[in-house]
Write a structure and sequence with these properties.
The chain is mainly α and 205 residues long. The chain has seven helices and no strands. The protein is elongated, with a radius of gyration of 18 Å. Bound molecules: 2-acetamido-2-deoxy-beta-D-glucopyranose (2 copies).
Length: 205
């Protein structure tokens, strides 16, 4: 249950993060609500697989998304991805414990995906860590790696000679891919603009 304590930790962190004034000293809440729309739009314009609606719906569901800056949005996307991946670990375990519903090939694939998703969870925790220390290149590489891993899990069910069994994890793989794509796009945007420092400390100059 370590992930629960991680979530509590990160939630406190998030609260702290969003309670501190950000870029240009503008107080939280005055940052334009358009940021969400604009960010999702900008990302969708840059990639054909990026879903504007998925981006908007996912981020809108989190109240803090309405009152933050780009860094905050990236954290929200990574936290959502982490929560998603953690839930998928449980989903896969339930499928495996369901008893007899799957053929041996599917079971082997599910076991492979379980390993992948356990790895994904720790990779996302680490990605959030390096992101918070503003190591955007590493965060970029690790979030990209997670996207590759969703493809590996999904592709496993296709076997060597084309489609053998339908993947029971298509929705999960798609959701995680899209959430990571949001984070990745925002990380790219952050590397393009001059950096305002991440303000998570209490000391104001
Ligand atoms: C964001 O986009 C949605 C859907 O396109 C629209 O309904 C909403 O008014 C937009 N919000 C802002 C702040 O532009
Ligand atoms: C995964 O994330 C998507 C998008 O935010 C959400 O709609 C879905 O309910 C989440 N699924 C789980 C199992 O957490």
């Amino acid at each position: 249950m370590w992930h629960f304590s991680f979530f509590s930790f990160s939630f406190c962190f998030l609260l702290f993060f969003f309670l501190v004034p950000h870029q240009n000293g503008s107080p939280v809440g005055t940052i334009s609500a358009d940021l969400l729309n604009q960010t999702c739009k900008k990302c969708a314009d840059e990639s054909t697989i990026f879903s504007y609606n998925f981006c908007l719906t996912s981020l809108q569901a989190i109240p803090v998304s309405h009152a933050t800056n780009l860094q905050g949005l990236a954290i929200v996307a990574m936290e959502l991805a982490l929560e998603n991946a953690t839930n998928t670990v449980s989903t896969i375990k339930e499928l495996l414990n369901g008893g007899g519903a799957f053929d041996p090939f599917s079971i082997a694939c599910l076991e492979g995906c379980l390993e992948i998703y356990l790895d994904v969870v720790s990779r996302l925790v680490n990605s959030i860590g390096v992101f918070l220390s503003e190591n955007y290149d590493t965060a970029d590489a690790w979030v990209s790696a997670v996207m590759d891993e969703t493809a590996t899990c999904e592709g496993g069910f296709k076997g060597e000679e084309g489609a053998i069994v339908p993947s029971p994890l298509t929705k999960e793989n798609y959701n995680l891919f899209q959430l990571c794509d949001i984070a990745l796009c925002i990380i790219h945007l952050l590397t393009l603009i001059p950096q305002a420092p991440l303000q998570v400390g209490c000391v104001a100059p």
